[in-house]
Amino acid sequence: xxxxxxxxxxxxxxxxxxxxxxxxxxxxxxxxxxxxxxxxxxxxxxxxxxxxxxxxxxxxxxxxxxxxxxxxxxxxxxxxxxxxxxxxxxxxxxxxxxxxxxxxxxxxxxxxxxxxxxxxxxxxxxxxxxxxxxxxxxxxxxxxxxxxxxxxxxxxxxxxxxxxxxxxxxxxxxxxxxxxxxxxxxxxxxxxxxxxxxxxxxxxxxxxxxxxxxxxxxxxxxxxxxxxxxxxxxxxxxxxxx
Length: 242
Prior knowledge:
The structure is a single chain. The protein is of the alpha/beta class. The protein contains seven helices and ten strands. The strands form three sheets. Strands 3-2-1-6-7 form a five-stranded mixed beta sheet, sandwiched between helices. Strands 8-10-9 form a three-stranded parallel beta sheet. Strand 6, helix 4 and strand 7 form a beta-alpha-beta unit. The chain folds into two domains: 134 residues, 3-Layer(aba) Sandwich (Rossmann fold); 83 residues, Rossmann fold (3-Layer(aba) Sandwich), CATH 3.40.50.460.
């Protein structure tokens, strides 16, 4: 397949590495294939409402150290179930998938790179099933995507969580406190597990293993009895009791 025009969009929440992916795709497409690269703005919203910009080697040259994504993103624009308010303030749900496909064709794109997590890639897969040439790139701090050991954004999230744990260790030890750090991760406990182990947490609670509150209390009391009157607890946002 000859690539002459390729599109790229970023969907869902922002994370570290998005601009690096945009830059890599742009440079590879232009330098290796002499292709034109179109950045679709604000995720699938840009494909629906025809908002885009041309990406070049020059305008992506200095974006590596920048956070976020230079083409914008959204985690609300679902082309198949797009929610809008009418003139009366009532929410209406529209299917804009055909409109998005028509704009894809109007832009004369040979393929679309979709950078996102599970929600964004599920949408991309639906377009693929409708015949759109789509290449999915796994992006999520939650690391909850099948088919890849690590998704970019995850390691940075773990690093930031470990930095927070370093500070909590100092405060907890100084004041003999129980310190609780709640971490993101949606329905998975990867961030909590890896940062908790790396940061020296004493209790780690993750969604995959429902916890018993009395066991947590027992751990705190055992530490106190052993001469360690402080405890660091890491809790994934979806952790729940058994």
